[in-house]
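Please check our next protein.
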Amino acid sequence: HYIVMNMAYRCWQLQTTMPDLGLRIDPERVGSMFDYTAAVTEPDGRLTGIGDCTRDRIGVGGTLAGVPARRETARETLGLAACPPAQTAFFPEAGQVFLRESWAADAVFVSFDATRREGYHWHPACNGLQLHAFGNRIIADPGRFGYAASANRANAITTRAHSTMNLNG
């Protein structure tokens, strides 16, 4: 998502500097992409392992500290109202909820993923739960492991490799 967010932001910038291209990129939509990226960033500055995420570090120097600031700069450039990133975020289209105590590096962060995925990037992690607290990853979704056939990949695409809950089957 981080890659797509940056591409959408760059397309919006092209739209504003080269209107003859005929691009129609909604700044609200691009702003919501920054909101999502902030929400999925764990306190240690890594993206959560939800879905096909690589758990890369983002922000300034790979820390969480740069994420809210970059989001705010983007919102200003997009002409959107200034507002702090939400500590509680629900993304119904993605089927995901993120809760954080604060934006501090040692904050408690919980994510819940009820997304049903299908296709090449699918992971059997519906009802996945993650917990990051006091500077430690307590319950983790392993995220993406590469697509080459290997024993590690074979395990990574199983439900047991993810932190999931089974509710009524």
